[in-house]
Amino acid sequence: MTSQRLSALLRKGVVRHWGVDPYGIVRALRRNAGTGTIVQGGSTITQQLIKIQTLGNERTYARKLREVCAAIWLEMHLTKDEILTRYLNSVYMGAGAYGIPAAARLYFGRRPSELTLSESALLAGLLKAPSHYNPLRNLASAQARAAIVLDAMVANGVIDAKTAAAAKAQPATLHRSTVSAEASTLNTQTSVNSAIANY
Q1: Contact (CB, 8 A) for 38 and 60
Q2: What is the mean pLDDT of residues 164-183?
Q3: What is the pTM for the complete model shown?
Q4: In the beta sheet, which residues pair with residue 98?
Q5: How many CA atoms lie within 13 A of 142 on its CB side?
Q6: Packing angle between helix 139-155 and helix 161-169, nearest 10 degrees?
Q7: Quick check: 34 and 182 in contact, CB under 8 A?
Q8: How far is CA 26 from CA 22, 32, 33, 45, 65, in A?
Q9: In DSSP terms, which residues pair with 92 in a beta bridge?
């Protein structure tokens, strides 16, 4: 049920276009022209899926044009739900996890269908900046971002305010084995750094 709610929120951003958001592209072009370099892309979820699976991270106008053409083609051959599912199964979610299923296992030790609403919101929040909001490094930031996602779900009619408040009252916490593994990794890195410094 929670996965369906999360998909409903993200689907709202997918159904409004044909794979390309002309307003987003114009906004990005203006910003890029102002800086003299490519700093913003104006990508839809469909375009991000194309970038993840085929085109890579090269920042050129030629790649953006290929991305736009491929996104329009993809929209003609797949349903919105298929595009969203492929995106959610392949997008980077921080800490080496790609896709919602891998992130759900890594952070919470669960399958996506077993996630609580607060856990789903935390994962959705990672989509904006997975390295910055990585809950292994900064759980408080990830939880604050999850609260913003819950507010967006209320604003979009996916959940009601009472449900969001209940989820905010019990923010997502990491699975015990994930916390232990991260502590072990940090201890190992600290030991290596100390050995190098003393060499």
Answers
A1: yes
A2: 81
A3: 0.74
A4: 92
A5: 26
A6: 170
A7: no
A8: 6, 10, 10, 17, 13
A9: 98
pLDDT in tens, 62-86: 888 888 888 889 889 999 889 989 9
Instruction: Set out the domains of the chain in order of their start, with CATH numbers.
Output: 2-84 (1.10.3810.10), 96-183 (1.10.3810.10)
Query: For residues 40 and 32, is the Cβ–Cβ distance under 8 A?
Result: yes
Q: Which residue has the tokens 């593994």?
A: 181
C-beta separation of 103 from 123 below 8 A: yes
Paired tokens of 124: 């959705």
Amino acid letter for position 77: H
User: Token pair of 88, please?
Assistant: 């959610």
**How far apart, in whole angstroms, are the C-alpha atoms of residue 60 and residue 108?**
37
